[in-house]
Amino acid sequence: MSDLPSISVQISVLPSNPGVYQFYDSEGKILYVGKAKNLKKRVSSYFNKKQEYGKTRVLVKKIHSVKHIVVSSESDALLLENNLIKKLLPRYNVLLKDDKSYPWICIKKERFPRVFSTRKLIKDGSEYFGPYTSMKTVRTLLDLVRSLYPLRTCNYDLSEEKIAAGKYKVCLEYHLGNCLGPCAGLQSEADYHGQIENIRQIIKGNFKGSIQHFKQQMKTLAEQMEFEKAQFIKDKIEILENYQARSTVVNPKINNVDVFSIISDETHGYVNFLQLSHGSIVRSHTLEIKKKLDETDEELLQLAITEIRHRFQSQSREIYLPFPVLVEDNIKITLPKLGEKRRILELSERNARFFRQDRFKQIKITDPDRHVKRIMAQMKADLRLSDEPTHIECFDNSNIQGSNPVAACVVFRNGKPSKKEYRHFNIKTVEGPDDFASMEEVVFRRYKRLLGEDEALPQLIVIDGGKGQLSSALKSLEILGLRGKIAIIGIAKRLEEIYFPDDPIPLYLDKKSESLKIIQQLRNEAHRFGITHHRNRRSKEAIDSELENIEGIGKKTAEQLLKQFKSVKRVKEATIESLAESVGMAKAKKIYKSFH
């Protein structure tokens, strides 16, 4: 390690007092904060011995300089360490641990070993497989094992002396065929241990030995004309082959490999871990990591690899990764580009993506503030904005066959519609169907009013339309002195292109992007709101004109009738007397005669 001499000099001058030490990398970034009863002794220990944890080994490789603060006691060091971690947020102090106790499969160290699930590891020489991330996986494996091999479930001491003395009698499990009765000397130790070896291989994901063993057994029974027993063994082979087909995702030759992938957003990273044995996934786990210092995907993945491998006690010597990161020296890194290896990496990425989607759904319910903050941060990044768009306004023009031109403005706050702030506009200064001039008018009227009333302006304006409508809206902002003060974009319907001012090349967001979904929702809401208003105006005009077409009936009379009878239909059905009460007998006779 080239930096070791300078580190050695720094360590040599450290005091032997209690205190807090800080490790920095070659760029001066804080890596780790720790406390010590004896600073010199503790810091030296990082470099004087082989570190047990992979995370620490990677940390030591990066240390370039050490700073320290001496305090009077160990308790003071603890308090100072806590404060510094909160203030400096060193990335190697990020705890990726959780308080879950994971399930294991235990093969107990006994003369006739039991096989069962447990959450406690007892160092008594028993074998433990795991830990598994899901109890469901453990139960599925144990059910498979028990359907193939009859094992004892009792906890008797099956010593040779006690079995020879006939101390135990077979129980109900023996009569049900779930145990072959080793307690009564009905199954030999060698035969039982042969079963345990096959179980050991199945748990590791290797089914080859068990399938060969059962096929040989079936052939022997068939030769001996014991067809019923042979069929029983054949059923076991089918169970095993079906399980193998479901669990084997790649070539069975891909053995003892760890696969890692990462999906991240503005605030969190999601690292998926798959462990492969004989082509089967024997473990899958996704870790959610909160970003504290705008860490890159490389930094998050490096932290997660060392932590996950330590947590699940992985001994795999090969890792599949989407890009290179710094890991322990004796581990081979593969960056798959094609074929089965690439497929398994894509499967890992898909798992990470699904986990992220599930977390979003949960957060939307349990922590809406975090959900909003994440969406706003994502929109800010996707649309290259200087501020998070917590207040967005969207404009849409609506005219059918050039009649009754109207426009709508809808308002979203924190990604949600704020319907009480929606506004309609009847186009006043434009004759005929001119979308560009109409857009110019409504944008000018909207923001002139907001400025006049000293109301807050939005962080983002969305224009339903392409470059033409966007240019028209920009003219109004220019006149009001708001150009450059409010971000503005246009969205064209055909290919969902997003246009920016003075940029002829549109932006295409991912079709699944949440930012695009919110912009589409804004556009659709503005369209719906505008169309509804437009239809209401046309309907009112149609109704008014139907009554006004009657000779002697003017606009005021028509309005009075609609106010009284609520609809033209009721006016048609009304008697002359009831009409006369509203508009007088002379007009009532004309209306009645017109409709009858």
TrEMBL record:
Look up the domain of life of the source: Bacteria
Give residue ranges for domain UvrC family homology region profile. 263-477
According to the entry, every stretch annotated as the GIY-YIG domain falls at 16-94
Q: Subcellular location, in the record's words?
A: Cytoplasm
Q: Could you say which residues form the signal peptide?
A: none
Q: Which Pfam families match?
A: GIY-YIG, HHH_5, UVR, UvrC_RNaseH, UvrC_RNaseH_dom
Every UVR domain range = 208-243
Listed A to Z, the keywords are:
Cytoplasm, DNA damage, DNA excision, DNA repair, Excision nuclease, SOS response
Matching entries from InterPro entries are given as:
GIY-YIG_endonuc, GIY-YIG_endonuc_sf, GIY-YIG_UvrC_Cho, RuvA_2-like, UVR_dom, UVR_dom_sf, UvrABC_protein_C, UvrC
The protein's job, in short, is: The UvrABC repair system catalyzes the recognition and processing of DNA lesions. UvrC both incises the 5' and 3' sides of the lesion. The N-terminal half is responsible for the 3' incision and the C-terminal half is responsible for the 5' incision.
Q: How does it assemble?
A: Interacts with UvrB in an incision complex.
Q: Which HAMAP family match?
A: UvrC
Family classification: Belongs to the UvrC family.
**NCBIfam families hit by this protein:** uvrC
The identity of this protein, by name, is: UvrABC system protein C
UniProt gene name: uvrC
